[in-house]
Amino acid sequence: MKEAKLKYYAGGFDVITQGNYVLCVISKKKIDLQDLRYWSVELQEAYSSPIEVAKKISND
Q1: Is 12 exposed, middle or buried (0-12, 13-18, 19+ CB in 10 A)?
Q2: Among candidates 2, 50, 42, which has minimal Cα distance to 23?
Q3: Which pTM does this prediction carry?
Q4: What residue spans of 1-60 are helical by DSSP H?
Q5: Which domain holds residue 9?
Q6: How far apart (Å, rounded) are the C-alpha atoms in residues 58 and 2?
Q7: Is the pLDDT reported for residue 59 higher than 90?
Q8: 27-52: per-residue pLDDT in tens?
Q9: What is the pLDDT of residue 42?
């Protein structure tokens, strides 16, 4: 398994560097690309769940 590099957009993403997963910026969990549902376009970060999104928002 290899980490992918993505460019995030509203409603989707492009794969910049091929891989199978990305890392959640909060939990550091591996997120399989087919399971990726949460990200920030502005910050270009991936999150493993809404819980991690809430943690990110509350820390800013």
Answers
A1: exposed
A2: 2
A3: 0.91
A4: 50-59
A5: 5-59
A6: 30
A7: no
A8: 999 999 999 999 999 999 999 999 99
A9: 96
Pair 46, 22: CB distance under 8 Å: yes
Distance, in Å, from the CA atom of 52 to the CA atom of 2, rounded to the nearest integer, reads 22
DSSP one-letter code for 17: E
Q: Decide: residue 42, CB within 10 A, 0-12 exposed, 13-18 middle, 19+ buried.
A: exposed
Two tokens, residue 4:
């992918």
In this structure, the number of other CB atoms found within 10 A of the CB of residue 55 comes to 15
- Number of structural domains the chain divides into: 1
Residue 40 has what pLDDT?
97
Q: At 11, which amino acid appears? A: G
Q: Tell me what the pLDDT averaged over the chain comes to.
A: 96
Q: Identify the bridge partners of residue 30 per DSSP, sorted by sequence position.
A: 23
